[in-house]
Fold this protein.
Amino acid sequence: MFFALPLLIEARRQGIEPAYAGRLLEGLGLADAESHPGYHLAVRALGSFAVWRGAEPVDARDWKREKARQIFQLLLTYPRQWFYREQIIDHLWPHLPPDAADRDFKVALNALNSALEPDRPRGAPPFFVTRRESVYGLNPAAQIEMDTDDFERLAASDDVAQLREALALYQEDYLPDCVYEDWSAAERQRLRHLYLLTAERLARHLLQAEQWDEAIQVCQNILAHDNCWEGAYRLLMRAYAAQDNRPQVHSVYQRCAAVLDNELGVEPSPATRALFQELG
C-alpha cells in the first residue's frame, strides 16, 4: 500500500483523476500531504535503538550526528506534542550559546530528515518530522510503529501467551542510550513500572498453573530490574514452598530483608512477613 502513495499524490498534483486520488488520500488521512516517501517507519526503543524504513534498517552512519537521532527520540517520546525550536534546543543543547545551538539544531534536523527520507526530492517538505509555523513534531498522518505500543497492547491482556510476548519485547528499559537525559526519564519509569506489574501478573498466572520453574524465572527477572519489588519475593517464596523447598523459602526472605534494609532502610512489609511465617 505505502509504495502507491507517492503515485497517488503525484496523480492529484498533475490533475490525473484528481477527485478519485483525493478521496483515497483523504481516507488515509493524507488529504494535505504534498509528498510521501512510500514506506512507514518501525522503531525499537525497548533495547538498542533501531529504526527501519519499511523493511530497510537505518544504518548507524545514516544519522551522521548523534543529535539527529536524539531529536527523533525526543519527538517519539512525546508523539502528540509540538515543540518550539527553543524547547528542543533547551533539551539537547542546554549549554551552548544561542547562535551555536541554533546552527547545530538546523544541521541535526537536516541530518534527521535525510536519515528518515534519503530519497526525498529536492524542495519537497519532510514527511515524518514536520513543521507547523514555528513548532516541530511528528506528522500525525505518518505511520510509525513503536515496539512500546506493541508492549502496552500485549501487557493489557490477561492471556498468558500475550503476557509472555510483552515481556519478550521488553529487552531493556526505554531508550537505554538516553538514560541520562531528563526528557526521557518519565517515560522510562512509566514503562518500567508497567513491565514490573505485567511480569508479576504473569508470575501469578504461572503459579496458578503450577508452572513453578517459569514462575521462578519471571520473578528473578523482575528482581533484576527492581530488587526492591516485594511482590516478586512473595511469589518466589510461594513457588519454592510449592516445590517443598523450605531452604529456598528462607533464603528468599533473608535476601528480601537484606535488600530492603540496604536499599531503603526498611524491613519487609507485614504481608511479606506474614507469608514467611505461614510458609516457614
